[in-house]
Amino acid sequence: MADNTNSNIHDQFHKEKHKEEMKHQVITFAMMIAFTIIAFGLVAGDFSKLFVVPIILVLAAVQVLFQLYYFMHLNQKGHEMPALMIYSGVFAAVLTILALTTITWI
Amino acid sequence: MSTHEDVLSSENLPHEPERATLEGKNKFMGFWFFLGGETVLFASLFGTYLALKNSFGEAEGTPSQDLFGLPLVFIMTMILLTSSLTSVYAIYHMKNHAFKKMMVWFGITVLLGAAFLGLEVYEFNHYVHDYGHTFTAHAFGSAFYALVGFHGAHVAFGLGWFIVLMIRNARRGLNLYNAPKFYLASLYWHFIDVVWVFIFTVVYLMGKVG
């Protein structure tokens, strides 16, 4: 009996925590939608290319970080190895894109 | 004394059922390792596209500014972003051990993913028939379909994965055996969305700007 009550309190604690987490994720989603609208708006509006391209690339990078840290839970504990793996991937990805756009195909 | 079956049943699942077993932990690590590899794979397609996006003959090719239409891409982006949120909801319910609610949200995710895929098929069909923008027409076409098509294939595979998981576990309920499976499928789905964020920015928006 004592055990049960204990586990219920425990459950309640986790449920509250999950709710809190979910709230952050919904806020993240709203920001991702906002960023997307800003990016499309900048392109639809008549701005200079040199102004628009860096901004939409930064917006994309921030959106991806939101996705990784909130939606894919990289912000939770026990995610050190996943972070190492994804950042190693990003490191190799940057080298790949640099090499392909500056040396290989041009 | 709890038997093996009791440990696996829905009523007494531990916190974070996706990583509660050794198998779950291994799958979790292995899947992130795979996602790191996928990042590099997509990077090579992005690099190829960036290098070849202007490689088409005067007569045969349509520049990306004239080819792409923003409204359709915007709708596709919204659909895929929303499907990412619905799979977050599914995992939220999984963590609260609410199996039925999880299935409903995964179901909505599948519907949104299918809508995205349908629009992509429509888009490609439009390019091929109205602009002669095909895979073999020029290097721009090859690089475009290799990149965006490969992403589309990921979406199709993700849909198949969700559907098979849902059918196979429909009557089983949530347990320590299938919690990691659902969790990984949702990670995969978020990763597809991550790639799409770069596709709509680098391919469509930057293509529109010139």
TrEMBL record, chain A:
Positions in coiled-coil regions: none
UniProt keywords, alphabetically: Cell membrane, Membrane, Transmembrane, Transmembrane helix
Keyword hit for Transferase: no
Membrane topology: Multi-pass membrane protein
Transmembrane helix as UniProt keyword: yes
A Pfam family assignment: COX4_pro
Transmembrane segments annotated in the record for this chain: 26-45, 51-72, 84-105
Protein's cellular compartments: Cell membrane
Family of the protein in this entry: Belongs to the cytochrome c oxidase bacterial subunit 4 family.
Protein name as it appears in the record: Cytochrome c oxidase subunit 4
Organism: Salinibacillus aidingensis
From TrEMBL, chain B:
Record InterPro entries: Cyt_c/ubiquinol_Oxase_su3, Cyt_c_oxidase-like_su3, Cyt_c_oxidase_su3-like_sf, Cyt_c_oxidase_su3_a-hlx, Ubiquinol_oxase_su3_dom
Spans through the membrane: 31-52, 72-92, 104-122, 142-167, 187-207
Membrane topology: Multi-pass membrane protein
SUPFAM superfamilies according to UniProt: Cytochrome c oxidase subunit III-like (SSF81452)
Compartments it resides in: Cell membrane
Coiled-coil segments on the chain, per record: none
Keywords noted in UniProt: Cell membrane, Membrane, Transmembrane, Transmembrane helix
Domain Heme-copper oxidase subunit III family profile: 1-208
Membership in a protein family: Belongs to the cytochrome c oxidase subunit 3 family.
Name of protein: Cytochrome c oxidase subunit III
Gene assigned in the entry: ctaE
